[in-house]
Amino acid sequence: MRLRTALDEWFVVVVVALLALALLGGWGAYGAVADDSDEEFEQRTVEAWSTTGGFDHSATVQAENEVFPVGTELSDRSMYFAEVAPELEATFTYAYDAPDGDVAVVLKADRVIRSVEDVDDEDDRVEHWAVNETTAQEETESLAPGEEQATSFSVDVPETAAEAEEIQEDLNESVGELETVVEVQMAIEGTIDGESVDRVDSYELVVEPDDTTYTVEAPAAEERTEERTEAVAVAGSSGFSGLSSVVLALLGICSVAALGVLGVARRKGTLAPSAAELERIDARYKREAFDDWISRGRLPADVRERSRIEIATLEDLVDVAVDCDRRVIEDERDGRYYVLDDDSLYVYAPEGLEDEESEDEDRVLEPDAQEAEEPTVIGDGSGEGGDALEDDSDDSGS
């Protein structure tokens, strides 16, 4: 009842709110359709496959010394002793990682002696001269992902250093810095991950000789990634996720349905409570407010025959009871309220019972069996339910 009253009072506000929710739901439904039909794509760079190439190197002790026995293999060191282990041995290993593939691989190792010079404010280096010599070459016709292809070579470091100095003296050139490297060129041709591949990569092992030692710098397992660009589907421009669009669409449907129900109820006049319903609510609230002055009971037929005084409201009847120092009796059988004062009977009939009053006057209520055996008692107290009681049979005999 309170909800209906509130809806009637705030009808315009509720309608505006439901219209806003319906529009929001329609937007969500459009977003759900737009996400499915207007799918967009953008170009993204993704990793397709990768290669791994690296060097393993060592030097075997060849000269007598007080530290390392002859024949000892010194491996993967950053520095070696040129006098006791002059020959550097190395192996380059290549492999690639991809979902699928089949390629032919050629590995060629070149010993390079060159004169280089760094350029100021530039990352590039100037190469004045270079001498190449192929030291090893390996090839395979078919290499699958995860399989390895390797090539091995050796460099006599003191001999190579002497050769480099001799070339520099022949050229009568003192500019630049001598450098000795082993450059491994890796050429692959075939198909990797469904795409045709034809490329050449290079890896370098750098040897820097000194008077009695030489250092080695080389990648142990350098990974290189091959990337490609592909079209990737992205979300539509509506800005709604699938679940959000569905929730908003359902919200819109419910809002439209609620608008229809409110409109029909308003047109039929059933939205607001009727006058009779409001009166019943008011009577119930008043009954609860005056509960301390009211007792429930049944009036005997002879008491009903007393002269009646009709009271307009329950509040007025309670005032009469207070003035007479009596209780208000709510008759359980006819729903009316009574106050007995001597030979007078004050009566209040709630809404809906007034039309039946004439019928009640002509109808004689038969006493219950319990009333026939026991006298009916009616409280005469001063407003308390447990005050002295008056026997109605005595009143009728006096």
TrEMBL record:
The keyword Cell division does not apply. It comes from Natronococcus occultus SP4. The chain crosses the membrane at residues 246-265. Residues 349-398 are annotated as: Disordered. This is DUF5305 domain-containing protein. Residues 352-374, 387-398 have a biased composition (Acidic residues). The keyword Nucleotide-binding does not apply. Keywords: Membrane, Transmembrane, Transmembrane helix. Pfam families: DUF5305 (PF17231).
